[in-house]
Please model this.
Amino acid sequence: MEKSVKPYSKDEAGKKAQVSKMFDSIAPYYDFLNHFLSLGIDISWRKKAIDELKGVKHQQILDVATGTADLPIMMMKRIQPEKIIGLDISKEMLQVGHKKVGKNGMEKAIELMHGDSENLPFEDNSFDAVTVAFGVRNFENLEKGLNEMKRVLKPGGKMVILEFSKPTVFPFKQGFNFYFKYILPVIGRITSKDPKAYDYLYRSVQAFPDGEKLVNILQKTGFNHNKCKALTLGICSIYTSQK
Model:
């Protein structure tokens, strides 16, 4: 992914610091905007990603770029693993997540940690599965982040990535791009009070190596059985890999 694609182009800070700043600023509005701007489809996307772990040993799971803990909470309800650790670079997002975890009575099963996805604070071969929803696009160094996730996976462990992709079907592609580039940022700007966050969303998706490009990167990184499944005419994709 191009390192030049950052939330705040005039800011001298690196992408990692800018992403943390951006998510800190939109944390109170993040869940509402996710569901509102996607018309609630993002919920079904997460369910499909979690279902990729059914039938797989998944007692210890790491959710990278966990945000407000939507995926761990849904995962605990859907497949009930023994333990989930959610890690994120944004402290404000994690604060929202802690409240949601407590509200659902899942404090013992879900642990949220502040940390860097590209420097995971865990030993090698620690987790049965690693997940990341809408987070790899924000990595400063994509291959480094993927290598870290592979490192902490147990041999034979599964990784599931859920990420935005670029639809290719006419005329859906053109209509979606118009909405994503012009309508969504306006709504996000008014609602979240951060004029750059949802403009960055469009730019980051356009720059991200989706589909077969990401599958090839996963192969290069050393993952096995790499697959890509497009959802909703290609708006989003699920990538599955095994160590």
Notes: The beta strands are 60-64, 83-88, 110-114, 127-133, 153-164, 224-231, 236-242. Residues 172-192 form the longest helix (21 residues). The longest strand covers residues 153-164. The chain has nine helices and seven strands.
